[in-house]
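Q: Got a minute? One more chain.
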Amino acid sequence: QVQLVESGGGLVQAGGSLRLSCAASGSSFSSYGMGWFRQAPGKEREFVAAISRSGGIKYYADSVKGRFTIARDNANNTVYLQTDNLKPEDTAVYYCAADINYRKSSYVTQYSYEYAYWGQGTQVTISS
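A: Always. Here it is, folded:
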């Protein structure tokens, strides 16, 4: 079992920034690919960003490229999502997820079905 706990969400004005964190339980965090997804009211969950086990490979949705940065600290079992230049359309519940399948170290995925564990989410609201 892997437990994921997100934090750092909140209400900010357009153009502002937030740093989301996701703390993972267990001793195998460095073996997991990690991802961030989001779900806005009335919309399907969508991919935001993913990072490989070592952190060397990162992949972003086109809608956040250049504004969001994913990073991880394997010593502290934490993955981060730095969100800058936020827009009202970024308003959503943000979830982190863990891909626990054994894969090559450079693997990253945007597909939610490849992530076995999910956090409870943290709300991000951007006012215009």
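A: The chain has a mean pLDDT of 96.
Q: Perfect, thanks.
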